[in-house]
Design brief:
Elements lengths: L1 H22 L4 H10 L4 H25 L5 H21 L5 H23 L13 H22 L4 H11 L4 H25 L5 H22 L4 H26 L1
Length: 257
Amino acid sequence: MFILLYILFLIIGVAVGAITGITGSSGVVVVVPVLSYMGINFKTDIGTSLLVDVITTTIVIYVYLKKKTLNIILGLIMGTGALIGAQVGANIAHIVPILPLEIVFTIMMGYMAYYTIHKSYHMDSPMKHINLNRNFALFAGFLLSIPVGMLTGIIGTSGGVLFIFIIILLFTMKVQNMVGTATLAMFISASSGAFGYYRIGHIDYIAAILIGAVALISGYYFSILAHKLDQKYIYRFLGVIFILVIIGEIFKITILG
């Protein structure tokens, strides 16, 4: 039984490393469903997933920094906005209705799934984003990251895909740079969220360390691979992640209530 459990954690860790290393997205789409299926409390699933994200993003950030495909200023600005939002979200979690947030989140993910997959087949077309002065765009990125952080505090998402959404909306950069920058912002957001779940005692440390250790190694190699992949394949990978998130949200809304 324990051997099967370790094998399962090994598989999850490899998957989380691949998702984060290539797309800058959270491993929540893998960790939470599997841990839930194992009968672990849902809040503990979320807290554990956030801690895994913290562990995994450290090595992914290192690789993207080394490859110089990470906008440190933008990542820190978005991460700070999310950090503030996470604290607000943690304090109002008990009074904010989650269903409307999840519906809006799912609609946004639907748009992003369409956009990234469509973009992967039309790489020569220019990126569509709001034309703003750079300083104003940075400020807008900060403001938009606050609700992302609130979602971290309320429902435990670390916001990787939403940070990419913000970057696509406001800035023009290669997809590898988007991934690296979003990962830095996610590290800050996930750290804040993980601390919140640590305070209420909802983290399975054994699962987080075992999955995180594998994801750390996996994330390193998949981050290197991401810099060798054609951009269109990363966009398609992102599209698949968005679709998986949508399926998970629809399942949670309709089945789990």
